[in-house]
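Note to self: keep these together.
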Amino acid sequence: MTTTINPIRDKANDASPPPSEAAALSTCAARLRLLQLASQALPTGAFAYSSGLESLYGLGHLRDETQCQSYLNSLMDNVVVHLELPLFCKMRRALVHGDFLAATELSDYLLASRESMEMQEQERQMGRALRRTLVDLRPSACEGWQPGTFLEALAHASNIFGLSDEDAQELVVYTWLEQHISALCRIVPLGPLAGQRVLDGVLTHAPYAIMQARNLGDDEIGASAPQLALASALHETQYTRIFRS
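Structure:
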């Protein structure tokens, strides 16, 4: 009888792969986890909210690709760079050391910085939804932990799945962008190709935004978006709407 050897299976079962191969496998696994957390299939409820975009469209501020791209770049430079990314990095450091209290305080700061009750509730609900997913996938890593915000839940998930600091920061930016592009495609409506053009334009700017956020000092953390606050407040009484309020 001839025995067929499967080299792929043999390598997968090798208890001691060479160091270079082990490092490559670890990096590959982390990148795949990055895709898992960035996927639209992740059940967080992110795409149930317009993040103020529905009201801005109703007010006539977001009518074409140029306006949408300009708005997203501006919001990213302000809120993502000066608030979300720095707080996210601090949450990651706190959670990796098991300092849940520090992570809670950072979530409280983020909630206090959100422009409306609608956006605060969005943070809370998406955080709870991501925690339910993590409890199902990694129950032991979630014992005694309740995230106050989605950003905190994403920070914990990025630690659990072994993402590097750089990959985790890119995850935050891409998740934020995809949520907004999805909303714009349904509201304006942009259509799938126009949505990809807007995404392509904003992604070109995103690396510079991430680098800027990495260089911020603690006294530079904080942001406000008054127009977004008004848009979010108006959404509650908007005559017709397709997103949660």
